[in-house]
Amino acid sequence: MSFVIVASVTPKPGRRDAVRAALLAAVPAVHEEPGCERYSVQEDEQGFVFIERWASEEAMDVHGKGANFTSMMAAVFDDLAGPLGVRVLSPLPAGDPTKGQL
Q1: Which of 5, 13, 18, 75 could bridge 52 with an S-S bond, Cβ 3.0-4.6 Å?
Q2: Could you tell me the pLDDT band of residue 91, with boundaries at 50, 70 and 90?
Q3: What is the structure's pLDDT at 93?
Q4: Where are the domains of the chain?
Q5: How far is residue 15's CA from residue 55's CA, in Å, rounded to a whole number?
Q6: Which residues of 24-53 are buried (b: 16+ CB within 10 A; e: fewer)?
C-alpha cells in the first residue's frame, strides 16, 4: 500500500526565493530514492506544498531520515516562519482509479 504525504513549508517574509531554490534543488535526488512514487512541489501565497507518494512506510521513513531530506531542511531552516507541517494520509480510492487516487 502506498503512503501519501502532504507537507507545507512557510518561508519568512523576504525569504521565499531562497526557500524555493533550495526545495527545487532537492527534488531530482529525491526522485531517485527507492520507493519514491511521486514527489511534487506546488506554490501558493502562503508558501510551498509537497505532495508525495511512497511505496511503503519503510521508504517514507528512510526518506524522512535520509540525506536528501535532512540537507534540504538544513538549507532552509533559518528561512522558515515555522515548523514543517506534515500529514500522512491513507488513500481512500473512489471512482475512476486513475483519477480517484494519487
Answers
A1: 5
A2: confident
A3: 79
A4: 3-89
A5: 33
A6: eebeebbeebebbeebebeeeeebbbbebb
For 13-68, write each residue's pLDDT tens digit.
Answer: 999 999 999 999 999 999 999 999 999 999 999 999 999 999 999 999 999 999 99
Place of cell 512541489: 41
Tell me the CATH number for domain 3-89. 3.30.70.100
Q: Which helix or strand (DSSP H or E) is residue 36 part of?
A: strand 36-44
Pick from 32, 19, 94, 24: nearest CA to 59: 32
Cross-strand partners of 4: 53, 89
Query: What is the strand order of the sheet 3-9 is part of?
Result: 36-44, 47-54, 3-9, 85-89
All three cell numbers of 33: 530514492
pTM equals 0.89
